[in-house]
Structures are given as C-alpha cells and as structure tokens.
C-alpha cells in the first residue's frame, strides 16, 4: 500500500490529514471527521502485508504455494486481531492508549490484508522531550504512569515486550500512556524463549532467548527512565558526548553480559537507585511487580522542582557555548603567546643594539685607518658624505613627525565640528 493521503479508509466519514510516522509494515496517520459541526481527531494505524510483490516472490522461492501463502498471512492477521482485542480489553484505562475501532480489507489477489486500527490521537514522548525541559517530577510521573499501565497488564496476564520511548504517549491532560501492543502476549507463568521487541531496551534474558516473565517489562521501563536521566544515552555511554556505532555495540554487549550499570548522570540519588534496581541483571533482583516499582517511585522525594534534565535545545546551546569558550580561550592563549614572543624579541633586540653599534664603530675606525694611509682626502670626503646623509634623514624624520601631529590635530578639530 502506498503511504499517501489518498488512502481509502473503511470508515467513509474519516479522512487522512497527514502521516505521523511509518515503520516496516505500515504507517500511522492523523485523521479527522466532522459530526454535527464538531471536529474529532484520531490516529489511524494502517498495516499492509505482504508489503510488496517482492515479498510474495521471496516466499514462493522458499517453497510456499498459494494456499500456504494465504495461510501464512492469515496467521499474521490473527496477530493483529489479538493486539486489538488486548487493547479493547484495556480500553478506558487512563494509562493505556484507547483503541476505538478495527477493520480489515483483503487484498484483491487473496494473499494478505490491509489492517486499520483507529486509536486516540496522542503526542509521542519523544516529541515532548524535544519541545520542553523535563524535570525530575516529569520522569517520576512517566515512571508511575507506565507502572500503572503494567499493573493493568499484569492483572490480565499480559507482557507488553516492547516498552520504549516511541511507545509512550502523552494526552492533552498530561497523562502518559502505553501503546502498541502488537507483540504483547498472554503469559502462563513464563513465556517461551522468543526474542521480540526493541533490543535497545530489551532485558538480558530476552536477548539470550531464555524464559522470561513480567520482570522483562520492569527492566525495559527502568532502562527508558535511565535513558531519560542520562541525557538520552544508554548505559556505558557518556551522557555529554555523541557515541560512535562501535561504542553503542560495546555498551550493549556490556549490559547484556551482566556488567553492573553505572548510575545515570542526572536525577536525585533516590530516583537513580530505583532505576538501577529496575535494571538489575537477574530478574529476581528487580522489583517483583509493577506495583512494587510504583511504590518505590512514589516514595522518592523531589527536592529540585525545576529539575536537572536539560532539554535538547539546552544541551545543544551548552555544547555550542563550550565549543566557543574553547575556541576563545585558545585564541586568547595564542595571542598571549604571540605577545610574549614579540616582547621577548624586542627585549633581545634592545640588548643586542649597543654591542652591535660598538662593533660597527670599531670596524669603521679600522677601515678608515687603512684607507687614510692610502688616500687621506678620500676619507675626509666619505666622512663629510656620511654626515650629510645622517642630517638629511633626521630632517625627513622630523618633518614626517610634524605632519602626523598636524594631521591628528586637524582630525580632532574636524571631529569636533561634526
């Protein structure tokens, strides 16, 4: 399906306004409708599978026939139906994204579907973080609100499995909500060893394909809070620098291999302790439930209400100021060194001036004596010429000085007239 505003929605009274974002299988759009003069807004997730004819050709190459292809994509459809059912069961909860409607349209060739999920229109957390300076109070609220969402998930035996900043939304009332239950699953006691979700925020046991439970979601939430408190950097990455790809890979490896996480740069000691406990390597060492983590966050006392978490703009300004200060300092040091060098040169020249003059006089006397013995008259003529040259130079120098003084006084008079 082409990502454009000419998509034919299964709800004729709704129209696409703009695309909000897209991923591997589809996109999310802002849509609206007018009812009795009242305009309603919504977010509509549009998913199409298979994505293209190339994907079908690849499946046929792998040995699928038309019947098995249809069965494969019927299973994919069932996964999205399960997502809708999970979200519908949690509808009306303050900290879960509301899902309003669901529709499917089969492809004309009978292979695959277009899936439409209509949800409430919210602002992504990542957008909020670019627009405002987060305070510690904001981080605590995000943590507690998502803990409430996980408490609802736990009561319904659901593991979300993909908690990340992009899946946290904020309403116009300031409530943070957990969305995108596309890979959530119902748990018995622990899930099978399947690795799904975003690896950057994934618990170590999930990455290692071990069995895992609700503690995996607690770890991911803890890592999201860590990311916010560490200037949007994952553990083992300096909060004030931009990492290279190999640095990110090494940091991920250190985390997954169980190296104790250093505290994030920002936030109070109490808050950082809560975050580090949520991110413990062993699931048994983490909070045993979302409710326990919620209580720990709720007990954190906020001392600095203005917060210590810089916004993106603040961080950029600080980096620019730091760079400019370094340049200015370097320039000043350079000028100081040049000045010192020039001063030293002048001092050295003054020291050498008298010895050089004495040496020159001695040489002249020796030369004059040698020439006098041959031609005294030539020496007298040369001496008289030298005296005349020195006299002319002094006259020129004095006249130039007088003219500069005259020009200076003239300019002062003219400036006074102005």
Offer a quick outline of the entry.
The longest helix has 63 residues. It is built from eleven helices and ten strands.
Shape: elongated
| CATH structural architecture of the largest domain | Orthogonal Bundle
Largest sheet: 5 strands, antiparallel
Instruction: Give the number of DSSP strands.
Output: 10
Low-confidence spans: 188-195, 317-342, 403-418
Task: Identify the strand order in the major beta sheet.
Answer: 1-2-3-5-4
Number of helices: 11
SS content category: alpha+beta
CATH topology of the largest domain: Transferase(Phosphotransferase), domain 1
| Binned strand content | 5-15%
Order of helices and strands: EEEHHEEEHHEEEEHHHHHHH
N-to-C span: 75 Å
Helix content: 40-55%
Task: Describe the protein in words.
This protein has 418 residues and is α+β, with helices and mostly antiparallel strands. The protein has 2 domains: 15-119, Phosphorylase Kinase, domain 1, CATH 3.30.200; 123-310, Orthogonal Bundle (Transferase(Phosphotransferase), domain 1). 51% of the residues lie in helices and 14% in strands. The chain has 11 helices and 10 strands. Strand 2 and strand 3 (38-49) form a beta hairpin. Helix 6 (215-229) runs antiparallel to helix 8 (269-278) and helix 10 (312-374) packs antiparallel against helix 11 (376-417). The radius of gyration is 39 Å and the shape is elongated. Mean pLDDT is 80; it is low at 188-195, 317-342 and 403-418.
